[in-house]
Amino acid sequence: MNYDKTVDKTEKITSFTKLITWQEAHKLVLMIYKITDSFPKKELFVLTSQMLRCAISITSNIAEGFTRVGKQEKRQFYYIAKSSLTELQNQLLIAKDIGYINQKIFSEAAEQTIKISMLLNGLIKGITKLP
Fold it and tell me: Which of 9, 30, 101, 111 qualifies as a cystine partner to 105, CB 3.0-4.6 A?
């Protein structure tokens, strides 16, 4: 999918793919696919599957929240995305601690999760200010 990363701040965002939050979360999904590709096969239906589900859940809930009309619904989906993000942070720690990823890869992914968390907080606060 091709998405435009430049958004005029006065322009109304008409697609979830134009949300910076979704774009950064999408980068994380791609990171997680690359990271888990090197995991042992015995983890395919355990840690690998769980990490991929969490990462995909983040972008999916951002996308679904974007299309919801009511503030409550939007906020609910963004909070679900945040919960999935927290789960993924835990799983990254596990992967590091059992030696599946090194400190450099862990740090890069962890920094990305922190960035997304702050962006999600901004989306949630922005919804609260809507009429």
Answer: 101
